[in-house]
Design a protein that fits this description.
By secondary structure, the protein is mainly alpha-helical. The protein has helices at residues 2-7, 13-28, 33-45, 49-62, 67-79, 84-112, 123-134.
Length: 178
């Protein structure tokens, strides 16, 4: 892979530049783990495994239950032949179980909190009726969209489709006369 990168002149320059941007983003949003994970990923992809390992360890201290960070710690420690790989692997299993329990609780509490069937007998018909009555605005008594099912367990998986722009809102566009 480094031969391909060197061929296109991207070897270290791309990753170094990306690290600078992700470091700025992590300063702006220090509680957002994704920027720190991206920094560690750039180190890893550029072949700087030691710095990548150090960065993932710092992330793990700050976000001990982050499954993605633990996965990379297990992988890097295994690749480097470090004894810590087993320790991180057991932490990963615990974090995955804890995450699964949180997801189950969230799914169960979502079902209990006000999903009522209308006189038509289905959640969809009651949602359709309330939409017709209240225009296009969502109300609290409307059910949330149906989530896809997890094929392994048959349970619904929660889909988080929210997006928060890390840089903020765009400035207003200049108005031009027609």
């Amino acid at each position: 892979s480094s031969g391909i990168n060197a061929e296109y002149g991207v070897d270290g320059q791309f990753h170094e530049k990306a690290i600078q941007y992700f470091e700025k983003a992590s300063l702006i949003e220090p509680q957002e783990v994704k920027w720190q994970l991206m920094i560690a990923s750039c180190y890893r992809r550029s072949g700087n495994y030691q710095q990548s390992l150090v960065t993932y360890k710092k992330i793990h201290i700050k976000f001990p239950e982050n499954v993605e960070c633990l996965k990379f710690l297990v992988r890097i420690c295994s690749d480097l032949g470090l004894k810590e790989a087993n320790e991180y692997a057991s932490k990963l299993k615990k974090a995955e179980k804890a995450k699964e329990l949180r997801d189950q609780r969230r799914d169960n509490s979502g079902r209990r909190s006000g999903r009522q069937r209308g006189s038509g007998g289905s959640e969809r018909s009651s949602a359709r009726n309330s939409r017709q009555n209240s225009g296009s605005r969502r109300t609290e008594d409307q059910p949330t969209p149906v989530a896809p099912r997890d094929t392994a367990s048959g349970r619904k998986k929660a889909v988080d489709a929210t997006y928060s722009d890390p840089i903020g809102e765009l400035p207003p566009r200049p108005r031009t006369a027609a």
